[in-house]
# Entry
Amino acid sequence: MNLKQSRQRIYNIGIIFAFVLAINGVSAFYFLRIDLTQEKRYTLSPVSKETLRALPDQVMVRVYLHGDLPLSFRKFAQNIRDQLNEFRVYGGSKLQYEFIDPYESGDERQIQATVEKLYKAGLQPTSVKMRDQKGGYSEKMIIPGAIVSYGNRDFSVNLLSNNPAFSGEENLNHSVQNLEYNLINAIRSVTQTRIEKIAFLEGHGEWDEYHTGDLMKALSNYFQIDRGQLRGNVESLQPYKCLIIAGPTQPFSEEDKFIIDQYIMQGGKVVWLLDAVNIDRDSFAQGNAYATIAQLNLDDMLFRYGVRLNPALVQDIQCALIPLATGATTGQSKFVPTPWPYFPLLSGAFDHPVSRNLNLIKTEFCSYLDTLQVAGIQHTVLLRTSKYSRIKNAPAFVRLSEVKQGFREEEFKDSYLPIAVLLEGKFPSVFQNRMLTALKITGHYSFKPHSVPNKMLVITDADIIRNQVKQTPRGILISPLGYDSYTSQTFGNKDFLLNAIQYLTDESQIIMLRSRNIELRLLDKSKIMEQSTRWKMFNTLTPLILVIMAGMLFQQWRKKKFAQ
# Structure
């Protein structure tokens, strides 16, 4: 009887052992996890699953975050790996990935060449502190980004959020939140077969292709970019998904307004970047400039759509710095960084995917908007000033000497002025109930008094889209959009505009993935300091006590068994 029981026991143990081996074998080839988190951080959205299931051929994701990394970035790299493994559940063998250490070769020249190559490809290196074996710290350049390849197409994606307004832990948390969006957006971009068109309007003094060059280059990863004038042809905008009106300085004719109006009525998206006030920047060489009201002949259109541009300059305590000459030393002027309230730094709406978790947005001589009640139109403020702002109505002088007087918070009594507003709904035509026979229009059209459900974005600063341009012996040098050459800081202008245009044009609404919120659950550092000894003792002694108790119980069980 005892022999049979022993055999049965060995048999049962063998079955359990074989079952565990089978589970391990299957898990080595298949990725599976159950999402028990409150915010479902490990659950893919339907649009991601659809994109991955529809991959036409193999997509390769090369992640350059590997090797000797700080603990926080090792965890981030593991988050990226987990996300890609989740992607492979739906993409199968068509989605491949590898993690690459740019420092693996150990050769300084080769490492430098690799980093420069990745930088030229669009990946942004970042410096981190590393603890060495002696307990000290050293700095290391890492590249928290990836290149997604499909056929002969590559798409570079920076995976680390680097907003100076947030702590390092918060930036990493935001980066984890945006992993699904950043990677799916890159995969969708390299595999898309149909390329939509976007037009930059010309003919009214808008910014040229150089001053909008960096955004145009970024948009070319998703769209075909064209520039041109309307020339009275009502059909000229029909091929385009979106129209960008970037900084006009001359009034619009009624014919051009009619063409844009009917383009909107048919579902065309428009991004308006308008200056309500003109200011001659060259006049600041003499210490002051005169701000005048811009005459664009667009007030009636925008009023009809639900917004009004106010002809005033906005000042804000939260502002950019400018170099101001304070005197001369050794025959040369001395420049010091000085806050300039006419260059407000705007905050984005945290609850909207276009603007959440972005760096501050830099503006120059911006105005502000009023939203108007129009039936069926929904307003969403995407960018606004800080709590401490004020307005100066045009016409008015702007003097550099104002900074010498100083700025006090109590003088800035206007809070959270709207600068960028998203409009959504069915827009009424500004030409409804108006005679159209006087318009000199070519092309075939059927007048529409109301639009289909549509969207547009109105921004009261044309400089948000303008990158710096420098003439060099090698030609024209275009700086990154949002880059401030004086402080060497890059603001969030490009990310904001890319997000906005994608929100307007993408029917699949991948941009909504940016709405995902993962709560950052940090440990209470004060409690850690107070209770560290207690928890160390608990973690050390508890396993020993459990082992001793288990041994005692087992011994008691043996005594009872053999006593019987």
The CA atoms of residues 204 and 278 lie 14 Å apart. Residues 32-190 form a domain with the Glutaredoxin fold (CATH 3.40.30.10). The longest strand covers residues 332-348. The chain has two domains: 32-190, 207-283+295-318+346-391+414-507.
